[in-house]
C-alpha cells in the first residue's frame, strides 16, 4: 500500500500568512504515515527567486516531496532554485516514489493563467507512458475538465482533448491529479479518476453556496483552513480521502 498526500497552491509570497499556512500543512503531514507528498503547482505567487527559497526551505520532509509548476510559477527561477538548472522550456519530470511512477507535466503558458500542454510535453508524456512497465499517475496544474466554477473554468487547460488522446492510447495511466482550482473536486477524465487538490493558500467559493455574484475579488475564501487529499494505492486500486487541516 502506498499513501500519497496531495496538496496544491501554496503561493509563497514572502509574507507571513502564506508561510504560516504552508508550515501548518507540512507539520501536519510530517506527523502522518505517508510515502509521498505531491504538490501540484503554484508553489510561488510571483515566481521570484526569494519565493522559491521559501519553497525549498519549507516543502521538505523525510519522504519524497514531488512538485510541478503552476501559472504563478516562473520556469527560470523554479529551475534555478529547485532544480539547480536553467532554461525556460517546460518542466516535465518522471519520478519514482513510494514504489509508484509519477509523470509530472508542465501545463503552464508563461505569462498567462490558462493552461496548455505543449507539443513537446505531450510527446514526452506519450513516450513515458509507452515505455512504462507499471501504472503511471499523471499530474499537472490545470484542470482538464469543467469544475462548475465559471471563473476557474475560464482558465482551465486549453487542450484537454490532446491529453485525453495520449492517455487513452496507453494502458499504463491510472489517475490524473491536478491543482489550480483551490478546491477539492473529483471527476473522471479520459476514463480515469481525476482529482483536484484543495488550496493551501485559500479556497474558492462555489457559486451555489452563496447569493453573492462571484468575481475574482471575492471568490477566494482566505479564512477557510487548508486541505489535503490522501490517495491510497493498493493492489492497483485508488481510493482518495479528503481532509481539512485544522488550526
UniProtKB/TrEMBL annotation:
The keyword Plastid belongs to this UniProt entry's keyword annotation: no
SUPFAM superfamilies according to UniProt: Metallo-dependent phosphatases (SSF56300)
GO function terms (MF aspect): hydrolase activity; metal ion binding
Transmembrane segments: none
UniProt entry keywords in alphabetical sequence: Hydrolase, Iron, Metal-binding
Calcineurin-like phosphoesterase domain: residues covered: 4-183
Family, as annotated: Belongs to the cyclic nucleotide phosphodiesterase class-III family.
Protein name: Phosphodiesterase
Organism: Micromonospora orduensis
